[in-house]
Automatic annotation (TrEMBL):
It comes from Methylobacterium gregans. CDD domains: CrtC-like (cd21471). The gene is crtC. This is Acyclic carotenoid 1,2-hydratase. SUPFAM superfamilies: AttH-like.
Length: 247
């Protein structure tokens, strides 16, 4: 859970297996849970931030306009799957801690894997943008064996997939502090960083200005370096941002 701006919050807590409870239409991890009623996904959040232990409590409701057909395999061996379940959704956020609420558009996906990410990949970049009739998603993966997979996807509001012309590479500056690369793509080969949300040793999240599917868009962009993640110094720093609850 991440809130940018003021008051900002960040929570990404790891918990042991006994904290997990799941069924066909619900998933609970520790005090937080989500449930699907056939129309909306309701996420109830009860967490504490890190490194500052400020509370994050409230509800997020996601109303998908449509559901996509199924997952994509990201590696040749089929050990890693990614499913953009609801590329276009309406979202209602109501938080008691901090006191915030808003309505807007959103996105919901899942990732699943049978081995650590760093065993299969060196890095990847991803971005999603609202379009006038749905959403565009780009997902570029670099694998450990040297092969690549570059996905250029366009989804209508009902979740059906449509053809999209593969965008051109667009050069972006690395992040200011940790110098994380931010490879991106745009129809005209041009993109601009409007805001940097996360600048960490192995991960960056940014808001861009670009063109996708023939439209001027503002994608949320992410880049991840699994090679950097394996650095012993980065491993040492992780618990300060991603605490582990042993009980």
């Amino acid at each position: 859970m991440v809130l940018y701006g003021a008051p900002g919050r960040f929570a990404l807590t790891e918990r042991r297996a006994p904290a997990l409870d799941r069924g066909v239409a619900h998933l609970a991890i520790g005090p937080s849970a989500l449930a699907w009623d056939g129309t909306a996904l309701t996420v109830r959040i009860d967490e504490r931030g890190a490194p500052l232990p400020r509370p994050i409590r409230g509800t997020v409701r996601l109303y998908p306009d449509g559901i996509t057909a199924g997952p994509f395999t990201l590696d040749a061996a089929g050990r890693h799957r990614w499913w953009p379940i609801a590329p276009s959704s309406r979202v209602a956020v109501d938080l008691a801690e901090p006191g915030l609420s808003w309505r807007g558009t959103g996105y919901f996906d899942t990732n699943a894997g049978d081995e650590p990410l760093e065993d299969a990949f060196t890095d990847w970049s991803w971005c999603r943008a609202d379009l006038s009739d749905g959403a565009a998603i780009l997902y570029d993966v670099r694998r450990r064996d040297g092969s690549v997979q570059d996905l250029a996807l366009r989804f209508a509001r009902d979740g059906s997939r449509r053809a999209i012309e593969p965008p051109r590479a667009a050069a972006l500056p690395p992040t200011r502090f940790w110098r994380m690369p931010r490879p991106a793509r745009s129809d005209d080969g041009q993109a601009q960083v409007l805001r940097s949300f996360e600048d960490t040793p192995f991960y960056a999240r940014s808001l861009l200005s670009a063109r996708l599917g023939g439209e001027a868009v503002r994608p949320v962009h992410e880049s991840l370096s699994l090679t950097r993640l394996t650095n012993p110094l980065v491993r040492f720093m992780l618990p300060f941002r991603m605490p582990r609850v042993l009980g």
